[in-house]
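ok trying this again, last paste got cut off
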Amino acid sequence: MIQRINSVALFPLAFISLVLSRTYAVSKTALVPTLVGSDQELVAANGNLGLLAGLVGFCAAVPAGLLQLVDSRLTLSMSALMFGLAGLVSLQLPRHVATTPDTANDAEITELKGSGVRHAALAMMLLRGIVGFLFFHVAFWLRDEQAGTAWFALALGLSSLATMLANAVSPLLRRWISERTMMTLSLAVISVTGVLSGVLGGITAGIVLIAVCNGMGSIGRLAFESIIQREAPDANRARTFVKFETINQLIWVCAGLAAVVFTFSGAVGFAIVGVASAMGLIYFLSANFGVAKS
């Protein structure tokens, strides 16, 4: 990418980079359950990894933004160096691979098809799609704004900070409220923030919205993982999380492509996020009300 910064080839290379980042996310999801001994450790491990990722992302956004003001190639050089170091660290990971049967047993299939898991999975897919859509929407929208790159670096930094805070408070929230309430809260906050951002418009509203979506998305993800752990105890953790994470990552990419193909104005894109989240909230509440009533 450094050698093709002003070439059309930059775009497919950037897309490949995004695909590889999604592949990493799926691989991590499969690996973590094999390295912990209990469900409680799994929640804590996922929270700590999210906290660390948010902290590093926030810290990296500042020098990346400054380097971008000098030369875009310097930012890519910094990224290449960090990924190279991360690759060396990954060589220290345990070499064992969690082997599982090719097909799930009857108990696992029944649990994963339960209404509680199904509704939570759909809500999680929506949250991931919203995050992907907003990421690309804000990126392409700010491209045409003055100092757009610096604004986007700020948005990424605040998003990482929001993710870090969300991963820090999620275990505490789980002690006070149920997982379904956590997911309801995530959808409700995004819905209100999205509608307000659509009404107000402007760069500040967009930056606030992308930070809120990433933070609430992280809370929803940890709530979803807890629901899987409780309502599908017989399911293989590695296989189950990979299955759902793969679907979620594909939705992230598809939603992002939609934001690129259909170039909405800033305010319209924000409103779409708010309305989509509101519709998901209505579905989630009605679905869980029907389950509770039955």
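PB: full thing came through this time. The chain has one domain: 2-99+107-293.
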